[in-house]
Design goal:
The complex is a heterodimer of chains A (272) and B (136). Chain A contains eight helices and nine strands. By secondary structure, chain A is an alpha/beta fold. Chains A and B meet through helix 2 of A and helix 2, strand 3 and strand 4 of B.
């Protein structure tokens, strides 16, 4: 039999349990609502960032095409494109409440990991690791082509540190030609038959000289990559974002330079 | 009700204690319960707002994609209803380097607005603002 003393306090205990249950339900509802709200805010920022990044690509392409259109002589165009690709990224552009920034990269200033011959690649890697390891790495690379530069780190004998070190000098989107007017010294030094002359070339370029076939360049000398004096592949890297939100949308667009116009070759998007 | 649980001969002090306990329980339940209800209401309000913003993003993206395809007029800055109380406006204004800035603005039923901006190429014909003159 339940006594009066045993019943005393039951009401409070029942109420406290009810409050615990209600509290759990209310907290769950509030957390889900907040999570949903954050998700929608991210979607909004992604949408704003995506169209801003697309605008950046269009702006960059329009600038390069205007440049190609305005200059007729090959030497002038080579100089203008070299300046454009060496210039700092186009500063932050405001499009309403969206922002974007774009950079133009000359892919012919880099060695293509899949199209460049084994000797040239081995020369480049040898600038960072012992020759035997560079040779093994090139053998692995030729057996297992990569689709992204980041995949280089997963190739046997490569590793993260080497992949990071060679990243500014390699690409997977080039056509295999090397632009002697924009390639960096390590890239030029890796070309068969050039080697030590690379430093001289870089000094001449820094003096404002534009290298052409008349400068004694021999395309494809000693079985290396074919040389060019102006870019044939350009990559436009554009980032768009909404101020106040950490999400950034990036687009990497590769264009083929055909006369005075750019033709889209590939398009990749990602959120960062 | 609690008083009926007591024996008829129970002391008046004990009966009073049980009544007091029930009253205290009711007050606590009311106060804390009201706080929880407010929290739930806010959560519901937040969720409804999120759904509304999601629809706004969808309408804005839809407008921008249709503008890209040329199926929406860019030379008509009128605000048009798109359903569920949402309204949409598409405007273009000249930008630099032969480009135009296309803005799709969606007005939410709550009075807020969401805008998407994108550059598009403008035709070289002076003064032209029609859809066919804006290339993506």
């Amino acid at each position: 039999m339940v006594t009066r003393d045993a019943r005393r306090g039951v009401a409070l205990v029942v109420v406290l349990w009810l409050l615990v249950l209600l509290g759990a339900a209310a907290t769950e509802i509030a957390l889900r609502a907040r999570s949903e709200s954050q998700l929608v805010a991210t979607l909004r920022a992604r949408s704003v960032g995506r169209y801003a990044a697309e605008s950046g690509i269009l702006l960059g392409a329009a600038r390069v095409e205007a440049l190609l259109d305005s200059l007729r002589g090959p030497a002038e165009r080579a100089a203008a494109l070299r300046d454009e690709t060496h210039r700092s990224p186009i500063p932050e552009i405001a499009l309403g409440d969206a922002r974007c920034g774009v950079a133009v990269i000359d892919l012919n200033a880099r060695l293509d990991l899949n199209r460049t011959d084994a000797t040239t690649l081995r020369n480049l890697f040898s600038e960072f690791v012992p020759e035997s390891r560079a040779a093994d790495l090139v053998t692995s690379l030729k057996q297992e082509p990569v689709r992204r530069v980041e995949e280089l780190a997963r190739i046997p004998y490569a590793g993260d540190s080497l992949a990071l070190a060679v990243a500014p000098y390699v690409t997977v989107w080039s056509d295999g030609l090397v632009n002697v007017n924009s390639a960096s010294e390590p890239v030029l030094a890796a070309l068969p038959g050039i080697g030590a002359a690379a430093a001289t070339w870089v000094r001449r370029r820094e003096g404002g000289e534009i290298l052409t076939a008349a400068n004694g360049l021999r395309p494809g000398a000693a079985g290396g990559p074919l040389l060019t004096v102006m870019p044939t592949r350009l990559m436009l890297v554009s980032r768009g974002w909404q101020p106040g939100h950490p999400l950034t949308h990036e687009i990497d667009a590769v264009y083929v330079v055909l006369g005075q116009s750019l033709v889209l070759e590939s398009w990749e998007e990602r959120d960062r | 009700m609690s008083i009926r649980w007591l024996r008829p001969g129970a002391p008046a002090q004990a009966r009073g204690l049980v009544l007091l306990e029930v009253l205290v329980a009711l007050v606590v339940l009311s106060l804390v319960g009201l706080g929880y209800l407010q929290l739930i209401h806010q959560g519901h309000h937040l969720a409804a707002g999120s759904r509304e913003w999601l629809r706004a993003v969808e309408y804005a993206e839809d407008g921008m994609e249709q503008a890209k395809l040329g199926t929406l007029g860019l030379d008509d800055p009128a605000v048009r209803p798109v359903g569920e109380g949402f309204r949409r406006q598409i405007t273009t204004q000249p930008w630099q380097d032969g480009l135009a800035l296309v803005t799709v603005t969606v007005f939410l039923p709550s009075g807020a607005r969401f805008a998407l901006h994108r550059l598009a190429r403008r035709a070289r014909t002076p003064g032209a603002r029609a859809v066919s003159d804006t290339q993506w």
